[in-house]
Write a structure and sequence with these properties.
Number of helices: 11
Radius of gyration: 19 Å
CATH class of the largest domain: Mainly Alpha
CATH superfamily of the largest domain: Hypothetical protein, domain 2
Shape: elongated
Number of strands: 0
Structural class: mainly alpha
Order of helices and strands: HHHHHHHHHHH
Helix content: 55-70%
CATH architecture of the largest domain: Orthogonal Bundle
Strand content: under 5%
Low-confidence stretches: none
Length: about 220
């Protein structure tokens, strides 16, 4: 995709959602970190349903440790892999207190050193909590970037590296959200809704369907 097309692609996505936001609900950087860890292989909606009552009583590392792993599991048992996630959340909470004074570090390497927090998690926290222009590549973004030809790559790291090169500077802060929301609601995995796609004419996907006919004036 040419630089001019990339610029136009983000201009159009920005027009659909001028101020995009994460759909994960959180109170502070710590609860965002926990929510992102819980969201692995789970929907944001399922995470939000579980974390609303959880964060009402455990919104800091110290309070999470006081809650304990067994009680934490009761709150998140509806989320996939909840046993492993509960263990990781308790461990990362302890490490935040031990290494960072109970605060979430504004540093990718430090975030990635926490249990259950990989590069994607670190990038989401840096972007949403701290306003860093990072791009976290999940399944939606991976699909959109490969389908459209925006930033093709064989794995999330390759797609992220490509996006870092091609996304214009003025769009980098919100690029993650525009792409993930487009993949979640328009460029869906099984049946992309090409008829309402704002970037249809820029998309290089060979399997795209014909756009819906324009309504009469």
């Amino acid at each position: 995709m040419t630089p001019a097309k990339v610029e136009e692609l983000f201009r159009r996505l920005a027009a659909t959602r001028p101020i995009p936001q994460s759909e994960l609900e959180f109170i502070n950087p710590y609860t965002l970190l926990v929510a992102v860890v819980l969201s692995a292989q789970a929907t944001d909606a399922s995470v939000n349903k579980a974390t609303e009552p959880l964060f009402a009583i455990a919104d800091t590392p110290a309070r999470m440790l006081k809650l304990g792993e067994a009680r934490l599991k009761r709150y998140i048992r509806t989320i996939g892999l909840y046993n492993t996630k509960a263990r990781n959340i308790i461990r990362l909470s302890a490490l935040l207190i031990e290494r960072h004074g109970g605060e979430v570090p504004r540093d990718r390497a430090a975030l990635m050193a926490l249990p259950g927090a990989g590069r994607k998690t670190a990038n989401v926290v840096l972007n949403v909590a701290f306003g860093e222009p990072t791009i976290a590549v999940d399944t939606h973004i991976f699909r959109v970037c490969n389908r459209t030809g925006l930033a093709p790559g064989k794995d999330p790291d390759a797609v992220e590296a490509r996006l870092e090169k091609v996304v214009p500077g003025q769009y980098k802060l919100h690029a993650h959200h525009w792409l993930i929301l487009h993949g979640r609601y328009v460029c869906k995995a099984r049946k992309p809704d090409c008829g309402v796609c704002a970037i249809y004419s820029l998309c290089g996907f060979k399997g795209k369907t014909a756009p819906a006919p324009a309504l009469p004036a």
